[in-house]
Design a protein that fits this description.
With 105 residues, this protein is an alpha+beta fold. The protein is 54% helix and 13% strand. Strands 1-3-2 form a three-stranded antiparallel beta sheet.
């Protein structure tokens, strides 16, 4: 995953409505109309959020008739976990400290 892809993924998480959408999709697919009702936002605002979530790979969308149905992406979840592991230290990892070779006296 490139830095550009990683930033897209992180930015998709950086909004309370998008986090709420991810939580609502946990464990089940939902129609856009249900998301609209639960979030109490406008349709254009929902479309904007869903575009960002789908483009990031966190959410999959499918069209049925005139409605869109959304669900969490298994692959997107894997990428998010890998990203978190890449930039953080896990419980079982140890830190090493050493002085900078340039700054040694």
């Amino acid at each position: 995953m490139s830095y550009k892809d990683e930033v897209r993924l992180i930015k998709a998480l950086a909004d309370e409505n998008r986090l709420a959408i991810l939580e609502m999709l946990h464990g089940e697919e939902k129609c856009a109309c249900v998301l609209l009702d639960e979030l109490n936002i406008s349709q254009p605002t929902l479309s904007h959020h869903m575009k960002l979530l789908c483009d990031s790979g966190l959410v999959d969308g499918r069209k049925e008739g005139k409605w869109m149905y959304y669900s969490l992406s298994i692959e997107g979840g894997k990428q998010l976990r890998a990203l978190a592991e890449k930039y953080t230290i896990g419980e079982d990892e140890s830190r090493t400290y050493k002085k900078c070779a340039r700054c040694r006296e």
